[in-house]
Amino acid sequence: xxxxxxxxxxxxxxxxxxxxxxxxxxxxxxxxxxxxxxxxxxxxxxxxxxxxxxxxxxxxxxxxxxxxxxxxxxxxxxxxxxxxxxxxxxxxxxxxxxxxxxxxxxxxxxxxxxxxxxxxxxxxxxxxxxxxxxxxxxxxxxxxxxxxxxxxxxxxxxxxxxxxxxxxxxxxxxxxxxxxxxxxxxxxxxxxxxxxxxxxxxxxxxxxxxxxxxxxxxxxxxxxxxxxxxxxxxxxxxxxxxxxxxxxxxx
Length: 251
Known about the structure:
Helix content: under 10%
Largest sheet: 6 strands, antiparallel
Number of helices: 2
Mean pLDDT: 90
């Protein structure tokens, strides 16, 4: 028994008396002193166990599973994380919801056209408002901006700013200002579109950071939103356009 425990301990699999705790969080894969570790956004360091695929340093994942104490040759960490699922984790932080709660800005939607939490102000096709999300990693840059829930074929403009703001913007609210870079204009299909999108030749070899003239790993902060046409003259007149929630990316 003693030799078995020593063997398990060397492999990083020997448990100590500790209750299993459910875990779900966005994490970053990091290099520890002697092994790869998981660094949750909520804090701590964990030794990964039963990962369904190889863990690459620098990648971001949304992981579910359970944590417990363990003895390991890693010689650091707050215990082991037994991984149940690994899915994409957004590299961005959403802000400037048009839900009327005004938690991070002061300007309300112009016509009382509140959307749902996490989206922009409501538009004539959806009381929920449009959504801007992001997938991928910032370094190396694999980030893709994804606009959804706009009018079905609406022209959409992905925007980048370098400062915060708080102002009416057509039928919505824009919480960004400073230098504007118009990243890409794109027609929605089924109310959705993305940038970069490798299905388009002009995006095939282009990254978001290249188009936005920002260096991955620099720590620079940029703010993103998606402007879109909403061609209704009777919904919140006189404007015929709107904007999504905002996203913050730390490069």
